[in-house]
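User: Fold this; tokens only.

Assistant: Input:
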Amino acid sequence: MNATAYNAVDLAESGAEAAMAVNCRAVGDLAEAAASVGCAVVHFSTDFVFDGLQGRPYVESDRAHPLNRYGESKLAGEAALLASRADALVFRTSWVYSLRRKSFVSAILAAARREGPLQVVADQTGSPTFARDLAAAVAIVLARVSEPHALRSLRGVYHLAGSGQCSRFDLAKAAIAMDPHKHEHRFSELVPTQTVLRDGVAARPTFSPLDCTKAMQVLGVSLPDWHDGLKRALGDTATHYHPATPPRAGRG
């Protein structure tokens, strides 16, 4: 199970070699090592392999065309894995967040506790994915597999992300509205903005929701609507997570 990634999207623009080492070459090495001992590999990829220009949710067979170095390295990692001898499942996901570590949602909740307007881009649309929902769906898939070689007939790429789609602005607005500690908010207003490309900032796909029909039809799994995932993420952590403090380290 490879959930490791160089996912500092902006840093990858100047650190392409490091991104490629982690997201591609290490994946290929892992695949060959797994194949040599008869293990299967489950790997996670990203909606950033697409350019976001086609105007509809992406299916697995759509042409990949990354806009940035991070997306290029993740696409290369997919190719390295699928070119190997290993039985492999690649799950492309989108906008994964958790309140246990830094993510878009945890950053928004922290920013809401500071004075002044809170600006959030409104021209990027995707499929928000609660990390725990993603982990649960993959666990269900693996629980149905009696032995690693049983994955051979399922080998390939699958899209697995929260159902539905929204903009970054809509996600921020919903997170703020559902925050169980909203009495601590200090921001004056939530302001929609447009993406501005600057030196050192990687281009992002503007419309990259994922169509997850294949995962439902072939693997029998789908993730809840993104609203539901966000509600549970905030509700589950309401008693032990405080957005004003740094998120705890850890996965998911």
